[in-house]
UniProtKB/TrEMBL annotation:
Record's keyword terms, sorted: Membrane, Transmembrane, Transmembrane helix
Keyword match Membrane: yes
Recorded superkingdom: Bacteria
Name this protein carries in UniProt: DUF1232 domain-containing protein
Keyword Zinc (UniProt): no
Membrane topology recorded in Swiss-Prot or TrEMBL: Multi-pass membrane protein
Domain DUF1232: 36-70
Length: 95
């Protein structure tokens, strides 16, 4: 249950993710293999039209999309160096 609440809280902090993603991909502290992995995950998420819950179900169809986006972002935060987490105030959330 605690994980679920953490993920919901992360959703409300999603606005901080855009600058974080920019810095993540431009950072010299993160090796290119990790960057490539996340590029593949993000592009795969965008390109593959498979949904667990179809999007035409009003309100419910977006739940699996949002969940997957949150999971990818949480994984990026966990793999980021502490300096980047601290810069974007994710350090307490990532532990």
């Amino acid at each position: 249950m605690k994980r679920f609440i953490t993920r919901i809280g992360f959703l409300f902090k999603f606005h901080r993710s855009i600058p974080f993603m920019k810095d993540f991909f431009l950072s010299k502290e993160i090796n290119n293999a990790k960057k490539l992995l996340f590029i593949i995950l993000i592009l795969g998420y965008i390109a593959l039209p498979f949904d667990i819950i179809p999007d035409f179900l009003l309100g419910f169809g977006i739940i699996d999309d949002v969940t997957l986006a949150i999971l990818i972002m949480q994984l990026m935060v966990k793999t980021a160096p502490d300096s980047l987490k601290r810069k974007h105030q994710f350090l307490n959330d990532a532990k």
